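dude i think i finally got it to work??
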Amino acid sequence: MRPNSEFINDFVEEALLHIATVEDALLKVETGNYAEETVNEIFRAVHSIKGAAGLFNFVRIAELAHAAETLFGAIRDKTVSLNSPIVDAVLAVADLLKEMIGCLETSDTYDINAQVQRLKTFLPAPQGSVEENKNLWGLGDTIASDKKPAEICNETKDNPDRENNRAKVEKEKSIRVGVGVFDDLLVLAGEMVLRRNQLMCLVGMGVTRTEELQMVAKDIDLVTTALQEKVLKARMQPVANLFNKFHRIVRDLSRKLGKEIELRIEGDQVELDKSTIEALGDPLIHIVRNAIDHGIEPTNIREERKKPYIAHVTIRAYHEAGKVTIDVEDDGVGIDPGKIAAKALERGLVTEQQLTAMNESEIIYLIMRPGFSTVDEVTALSGRGVGMDIVKNNIEKLGGKVELLSSVGYGSIVRLVLPLTLAIIPAVIVQSADFTAAIPQANLQELVLLQPDDEKRSIELVMGYPVLRLRERLFPLLRLTDIIGDTRLGIDTGSAEYFCDPEKIFQIVVLNFGNRIFALEVDKVYDHEEILVKPLPPTLIKSNYYMGFAVLGDGRIAFILNPEEIRNHVGLRPLATEAAVDSIRGSQLPEEEQSLLLFSTAGGETIGIDITLVSRVETHEAAAIQRIRSKEYVISRGKPLRIIRPEYYLPVASPKDGSDSIHLIIPKLVKQSVGIVARGIGEIVKTAVALNEEGPGGCGLIGSTLINDRIVLLLNIYELLEQALPETCKVSTSVIRKQEKSPLAPTAARVLLVEDRAFFSKVTKGYLESAGMEVKLAADGREALDILEQDEVDLVISDIEMPVMNGYELIRAIRANERLRKLPAIALTSLLGEANKEKGLRSGFDAYEYKLDRDRLLKTAQRFLGRSE
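look at this
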């Protein structure tokens, strides 16, 4: 008699976890990285599978697990030595167990005798009767079958009852969550019930005073937010659950192809929504398979090219810009644009005229076209033209995107950029005519309002098509009404005439994805709102313009725009707007820009902070502030958060009056979690900062700049925190010294800082000098070389993007100089991503660090120059 479906689901989940344990442990054995406990792990896992299967009367599963248990019992007792053939045999048993668990209703018809006999060959001949030996190996009264497992499963398909039973097992999803999470949810649910009762009581009493209703509404808002965060946290799972499966996949494929490949996994504790992790399995398998089959060269070719005998595939997860990025990197041949172009032409995917207009990056992206393949012969692994296009589609369904980075001869990276959760996302709500849309905040670069009398108002026509000129850059300009009402996406002449009206007010949303930017004109822009993402209805499921929809607080339906798909369709217009933009701009590079979050102080000043230093912004009731002696705190995400009022430490005015609520800017890249009080949160602007050190300034400020004719004070977050939290944030002036031959007389390290932007030059110089270093400045690589010819320095810290001579050219010149070639050098840049880091290290830099991350920079400098005291 079978147990009910709930218990079957539990059995399936537990059994698959045990099989995963067995596979992971066996792979450790094969690499030699195991201890005696590893064998015990395997023994316990197969023993548990056997016991549970026997309890639920899945006879064949129990017998096969029992056979593996018997073998590992002997290995544990040291009567059998664990070796590679045993690993192969037990991995095959694990595969068969997974297949049988997938076909539970027919599992007892599987023929397991061959696998059991294979395991039996590794043991000494057993002593005793035939019946005893059968019992030892779990081969009592069995139902043998000469059919292959796949054939039996195909028969799980001809039987509706069996299919229904299997469907029940597959549909019931589960998630492992700590008891503490459920305790917290129970508390929050109780709080929600209390607030509901309060609200119902007020309604029943006919209370009309808004103060009392607002108080209850605010409490409900706080509890709902906490409940939302806790539920989302419960759905988050480490990517290790997914990544660990690839040890087996890489092992099997490398053996099949005769290649020596080592898998590296980084960032496996990064967490993603469980549904995202489940959907990532197939795309990642395909990407890894491509890396091994297409990317990694055969061993003899690697030797000819003087590359390491053992190739490497790295799967890496990390947080970046509020999203999770997963890189699959290989050190193989890379993606050859020439080969891609030739195959695309051969298969009729593009014309020669289209190829001529493409750059190398666009050619590489052709591999994501349906039907594309560089393989001439169809094999079990490749050649069918079904692959990266499916990967791209699956990732985009998750609200993510796929990026390709490659260096011919050195390897490639397939990058997946994913949202942290699919359930709730922050978005800005916009409207055109009667259509309401939500734009994911991750794709929002800035908001632009153009008034009729605005001197900087600049909408132009390029070859008849509207573009927005923003800080001397041109971006394609579309109307939201054209997108929703015309599949030509704004290419009719009506749009051009619409934008030429000099008396019209335009509200424009500037959107970005990756390094692509375009502008979208809307009728209204509402506030930000956290929205619950719902799947599209069947009638709109084929529309690529929308990622889903949401029900807003006022009951309206908002469709969530997919900026990348909209921009892709724009790229099909007769005019390649970006190419026209490039021709207008010429070859001159724009000044390096920064994204600044603007906020106002209690006294009315406007302060700007680099957005890369901001973790999040929170709003709290002033009444929620708790004072302990001279310090102030609020409770944020269940923990005390120290708050800092800028007017106490910066040369700004004192508050004129009180406020019912405060905004807190939570910085990152600092040691202690704190919140900086802001009276109001302004816009995020992207601008080339012209630093004015002669104007308003002082301790805690880098200087000031003008943004839209407004004086903006630039915050030096580290100086502010050193004043507010001297016990934890003050840098000792003796942290970094150069160690001379005599350890009794260390001298100040001499550092050459190469940076063309006054803003970053001043900030970084301050970091280094606060750590006791002597700093020389150079504005570009040529000036740096002149200094190095005349003076001795102990360390070079250089930007990458500079005029005259950039950082790559500088480091190559240093490494080519016999006197300087061993001089340590750190790249300090705003260019993010592993591909940029790899390029920097290959060019000759010893380390690669990000601008504004003071602590990491000082630690890296310390590694080259001295020691902590």
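Residues 608 and 714 are 5 Å apart (CA to CA).
im so relieved honestly
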